[in-house]
């Protein structure tokens, strides 16, 4: 049975979606920022309206190449062309096309035939640029089919319980009291709670009390992998806004010291706000404005986390527009940065200490291959204790790679 789309109820929302699509594909803006901007411009929208615009926009971006190819759109994103793409999306999503002048150029039977035809071609079905489909197949082989299919699905919302203040079961109860009842524990990620339906959890009392952070279940396992203990001196060398820093503090029971480094001051300011909300008091932030910052930390850390910049190909569920912003050249550039960070930051770990290298990428060339390269260059100083890859097709989570190494001398 086909779904019914009530155009007259959503005409204004559809035009807002078109604004976001133009911002993303013509102006090069990031989808999350473009959606935030449209939400700020429409503060009177209720939760349903916001969800509709956000979810449909992401779904169209996720399937952008398939929809454009089936709609035979190769020119600029005029309003007429956007209505054709949107009509194609409605057919793709199982709706009957409503009668409207906007959809007159769309032939429903022909569109269905085109969608069925192009759905058989992986790079069109999963809406990939040619180069990305090629590199995925080259590095992952037959596994690429399942991995990219998993990455082209709608993401799940996962929370990390702040174990300094609560636990997963207690957090579930507290969320239920705030009418967020459809939640489940993630068996392989001890502090994770998955929401069946995405909700604006940032408005909850539990969030304002610092009882949780939004963090993917595989991402949470990076901090677990570092094997920290209370009282340790830990350096998070690519801390960003500090999702993993906060998790490390909780695992350390707020005892010891964590030095959070980043090249962007703005992110460290956000981390300070988050530490205050979580009531974490063992984190010190340091802005990397020169090589002196890391040199001063040489041989001082019991544990070092290198959650390095990467292609982000493990988080395409959340950032589907990045498929069209990335390039082979950009991936090669970040690989060099990864090697530079491994070379220049690893000695922050003291002898006998341990380091985790992590990326949110599905490519071995950013994970396993980088560790092989590092060990070949530093083979007498480091010992590989273990590796773990969280593949999105297996874990229903973001794609992550992590390696745990021990410094020998």
Summarize the topology.
Blueprint: E1 3-4, H1 7-25, H2 31-40, H3 47-62, H4 64-71, H5 79-92, E2 95-96, H6 108-118, H7 122-125, H8 130-140, H9 143-151, E3 157-161, H10 168-177, E4 183-185, E5 192-195, H11 205-208, E6 212-214, H12 217-225, E7 233-236, H13 243-251, E8 257-262, H14 265-278, E9 283-287, H15 292-295, E10 301-307, H16 328-345, E11 349-359, H17 368-377, E12 382-390, H18 392-395, E13 400-407
Parallel strand pairs: 1-2, 7-8, 7-10, 8-9, 10-11
Antiparallel strand pairs: 3-5, 3-6, 4-5, 11-13, 12-13
Query: Count of helical segments?
Result: 18
| Secondary structure tally: strands | 13
Major sheet summary line: 7 strands, mixed
What would you report as the Rg, rounded to the nearest angstrom?
23 Å
Uncertain runs: none
Strand order of the largest sheet: 9-8-7-10-11-13-12
Work out the helicity level: 40-55%
Going by helix content, strand content and strand pairing, the class is alpha/beta
Q: How much of the sequence is in beta strands?
A: 15-25%
Distance between the termini: 67 Å
Oligomer: single chain
User: Judging from the principal axes of the Cα atoms, what is the shape?
Assistant: globular
In round numbers, the mean pLDDT is: 95
